[in-house]
Design goal:
By secondary structure, the chain is an alpha/beta fold. The protein has one domain (2-173): 2-enoyl-CoA Hydratase, Chain A, domain 1, CATH 3.90.226.10. The chain is 48% helix and 15% strand. It contains ten helices and nine strands. It has helices at 26-41, 68-83, 99-106, 131-141, 143-151, 158-164, 173-184, 188-200, 209-219, 222-233, and strands at 2-7, 10-15, 46-51, 88-92, 95-97, 109-112, 117-119, 156-157, 169-170. The strands form two sheets. The protein has a six-stranded mixed sheet with strand order 1-2-3-4-6-9, sandwiched between helices. A three-stranded mixed sheet has the order 5-7-8. α2 runs parallel beside α3 and α4 crosses α5. It is globular. The N and C termini lie far apart (37 Å). 41% of the residues are buried.
Length: 242
């Protein structure tokens, strides 16, 4: 499910579910969270996240996405990546959709292969991502690109991601590993401090209660139920804003 390999002081964590394009379920989210903690406690000075086969991560497993337990596991995983005191590089080897985009932007840097694609198609399903994800996406890709991804459900390919800044450089897993190994040679306390301050830029500076209420409202709405039913019935959803 999660393959962990060590290269000197760098740990590579690979989502190994190619049969479902590395979709996230509760077990995978929990396994990534645990693996990140184990790698750091084991002395890793940098991490690389990637996917097996031709996908980075196709997003949430629809068998579990509608459950509260999945959301807790998803955001627990993302928080573990964000708060890891070492640099995390996402080697985006293919599509990173929904939760896959979230995992990529939770990482500190993104190295993209030619087949990389980013998308956050929550509005097609009546779902929602948390306020942190929206802020982080706008911070990295720019507000215009973030609005296109979130409001028009556009896709962003590797070249466009590099142009707008969502991706940091082009390359494969070897390039991501080389980048991580270079960072592993740098001063750990300085990197941890720099990362903590940079992460604070996407954190809320005002009361989040109204935003979180709207976020929870999406997850308890009739539109979410309609999105789920439409997917099961293989038809376009009819959303009513309730």
């Amino acid at each position: 499910m999660i393959e962990s390999t060590t290269h000197d002081r760098v740990t590579v964590l690979t989502i190994d579910r190619p049969e479902v394009r590395n979709a996230l379920n509760i077990a995978v989210c929990d396994a990534i969270r645990i693996a990140v903690g184990e790698a750091v406690s084991g002395g890793a000075r940098a991490l690389v996240l990637t996917g097996s086969g031709s996908s980075f991560c196709s997003g949430a497993d629809f068998g579990e996405v509608y459950t509260g337990d999945f959301r807790r596991s998803l955001y627990g995983m993302l928080r573990a990546v964000i708060e890891a005191p070492v640099p995390v590089v996402a080697a985006v080897n293919g599509p990173a959709i929904g939760g896959g985009t979230q995992l990529a932007i939770a990482s500190d840097l993104r190295v993209v292969a030619p087949g990389a694609v980013f998308a956050v198609p929550t509005a097609k399903l009546g779902l929602a991502v948390d306020p942190w994800t929206i802020r982080r996406l706008a911070q990295l890709a720019g507000e215009g690109r973030a609005r296109a991804l979130l409001l028009a459900c556009d896709d962003l390919d590797a070249d466009a991601a590099l142009t707008c800044g969502l991706a940091d450089r082009a390359g494969d897993l070897e390039a991501a590993l080389a980048l991580a190994q270079r960072m592993a040679e740098l001063a750990p306390l300085t990197l941890a401090y720099n990362k903590e301050v940079l992460n604070s830029l996407a954190e809320p500076t005002v009361d989040e209660s109204e935003l979180l209420a709207a976020f929870e409202g999406c997850w308890s709405s009739a539109d979410l139920a309609e999105g789920r039913l439409a997917r099961e019935e293989k038809r376009p959803p009819v959303f009513r804003g309730a």
